[in-house]
């Protein structure tokens, strides 16, 4: 959060490296653009802010096709349009592989929704898909190109922006977008708020694969939103209640057992 | 420029790639941090804004020494402190080489100073060093490590922030920081404003090397500031008047001759 004249601005930045965060042989450039924008816009929305602008630092080898770059930029622009934001500028440099430095800015009309606001007694709810993108990556890694809905989930996440933008009016006490895995990300709320989070495995929405619960609990990149709300009235249908906030050590417990975090490790080997 | 509640925010982003924008064998990490921050903070100041925050996307190989990263971050922080800004957050990823995605934010207390405001009759002035960093790069490329002031100029630019922050009160009609070379950067003002810019070579401040004028006109990376001002009163000493804005085709002329731009080409071969 950054002070601005008369208000506050939220800003978030991600660095995306070819071979690690995307593969040109797995995703068309338009989808890489959509995804690069989505993950930053979701971060802004998770803070309770309206995304306003996106900046792109673009690094690429000199032989990169202009058409490839155009399609990437189209993807960035179209994802921004989902939330009324625009691509405002950027930088272009030569690099050995494609590198994207994406920054999203947002405007706060009220207090930010942070990770530390969860309180014992709150319910935990999610909106959006869990485990779909991770299932898609496992399929692609095995050389498969279907089912299409799982492959597409990896290529182009669909963060439920509207539901998350409505969380403030529902009294959300904490919120984040699920980028590294549900358990690991809820762990950030548990730590920041000093609370214990209990999840009912049977309430977690699953992707349509045999190993659905594992992927739903540990798979990142779908950019669903997880939030905590005061337990005072039923949530609208787009939010699914999956657990509760209680007093206790800062940890996440699924069906009574502390669950290994096992989400995204930034220094594990690249996608190859 | 990005609308924010009750005001406007300026944001600028740069991608810096090891081997191209910096070399770990040429610069200590602290200086790389100082320089990475300086080039973005200078961009913000050139728009007439107060820098408020900096975000870092940091990519590095897994065997990068923690001490190296700490020193880089110290450099970012200390450069931010020069202008009252702070490092507000960022992202960390694995990459084959060190990559820095730096975003700086600033607050506008009045209208932005853009490139298009220059008007015939204005004077052109600069504050800060020109050609020093380029002289330093030529020395380093030749295997030399002195004179120290030129080597240091490459490693750690010293943008004259205070002078540039005062440009608004002097009535500056256009401003930018000299990052790609004086002639090339003034060309951006000439194009944006639809004016001709005439430079007096004898008035340009030179670095202390035999080929000083060439380096002062074409060398980037010192992050001096160039601005245009109404010709109504003498400028304070930190601004040196070097030319004038006239009607005519959008170009930059030095001593009556159109000067090849010859500044930084983003797709020329890397520093090796």
Automatic annotation (TrEMBL), chains A, B:
<feature type="domain" description="PurM-like N-terminal">
    <location>
        <begin position="5"/>
        <end position="107"/>
    </location>
</feature>
<feature type="binding site">
    <location>
        <position position="13"/>
    </location>
    <ligand>
        <name>Mg(2+) 1</name>
    </ligand>
</feature>
<dbReference type="InterPro" id="IPR016188">
    <property type="entry name" value="PurM-like_N"/>
</dbReference>
<dbReference type="InterPro" id="IPR036921">
    <property type="entry name" value="PurM-like_N_sf"/>
</dbReference>
<feature type="binding site">
    <location>
        <position position="91"/>
    </location>
    <ligand>
        <name>Mg(2+) 1</name>
    </ligand>
</feature>
<feature type="binding site">
    <location>
        <position position="43"/>
    </location>
    <ligand>
        <name>Mg(2+) 4</name>
    </ligand>
</feature>
<protein>
    <recommendedName>
        <fullName>Thiamine-monophosphate kinase</fullName>
        <ecNumber>2.7.4.16</ecNumber>
    </recommendedName>
</protein>
<dbReference type="GO" id="GO:0016301">
    <property type="term" value="F:kinase activity"/>
</dbReference>
<feature type="binding site">
    <location>
        <position position="43"/>
    </location>
    <ligand>
        <name>Mg(2+) 3</name>
    </ligand>
</feature>
<feature type="binding site">
    <location>
        <position position="180"/>
    </location>
    <ligand>
        <name>Mg(2+) 5</name>
    </ligand>
</feature>
<dbReference type="InterPro" id="IPR010918">
    <property type="entry name" value="PurM-like_C_dom"/>
</dbReference>
<feature type="binding site">
    <location>
        <position position="21"/>
    </location>
    <ligand>
        <name>substrate</name>
    </ligand>
</feature>
<dbReference type="InterPro" id="IPR036676">
    <property type="entry name" value="PurM-like_C_sf"/>
</dbReference>
<dbReference type="Pfam" id="PF00586">
    <property type="entry name" value="AIRS"/>
</dbReference>
<keyword id="KW-0547">Nucleotide-binding</keyword>
<feature type="binding site">
    <location>
        <begin position="90"/>
        <end position="91"/>
    </location>
    <ligand>
        <name>ATP</name>
    </ligand>
</feature>
<keyword id="KW-0460">Magnesium</keyword>
<comment type="similarity">
    <text>Belongs to the thiamine-monophosphate kinase family.</text>
</comment>
<feature type="domain" description="PurM-like C-terminal">
    <location>
        <begin position="119"/>
        <end position="206"/>
    </location>
</feature>
<feature type="binding site">
    <location>
        <position position="177"/>
    </location>
    <ligand>
        <name>Mg(2+) 3</name>
    </ligand>
</feature>
<dbReference type="Pfam" id="PF02769">
    <property type="entry name" value="AIRS_C"/>
</dbReference>
<feature type="binding site">
    <location>
        <position position="264"/>
    </location>
    <ligand>
        <name>substrate</name>
    </ligand>
</feature>
<keyword id="KW-0808">Transferase</keyword>
<comment type="pathway">
    <text>Cofactor biosynthesis; thiamine diphosphate biosynthesis; thiamine diphosphate from thiamine phosphate: step 1/1.</text>
</comment>
<feature type="binding site">
    <location>
        <position position="14"/>
    </location>
    <ligand>
        <name>Mg(2+) 2</name>
    </ligand>
</feature>
<comment type="function">
    <text>Catalyzes the ATP-dependent phosphorylation of thiamine-monophosphate (TMP) to form thiamine-pyrophosphate (TPP), the active form of vitamin B1.</text>
</comment>
<feature type="binding site">
    <location>
        <position position="12"/>
    </location>
    <ligand>
        <name>Mg(2+) 4</name>
    </ligand>
</feature>
<keyword id="KW-0479">Metal-binding</keyword>
<feature type="binding site">
    <location>
        <position position="221"/>
    </location>
    <ligand>
        <name>substrate</name>
    </ligand>
</feature>
<feature type="binding site">
    <location>
        <position position="43"/>
    </location>
    <ligand>
        <name>Mg(2+) 2</name>
    </ligand>
</feature>
<keyword id="KW-0067">ATP-binding</keyword>
<feature type="binding site">
    <location>
        <position position="115"/>
    </location>
    <ligand>
        <name>ATP</name>
    </ligand>
</feature>
<feature type="binding site">
    <location>
        <position position="179"/>
    </location>
    <ligand>
        <name>ATP</name>
    </ligand>
</feature>
<feature type="binding site">
    <location>
        <position position="14"/>
    </location>
    <ligand>
        <name>Mg(2+) 1</name>
    </ligand>
</feature>
<keyword id="KW-0418">Kinase</keyword>
<dbReference type="InterPro" id="IPR006283">
    <property type="entry name" value="ThiL-like"/>
</dbReference>
<keyword id="KW-0784">Thiamine biosynthesis</keyword>
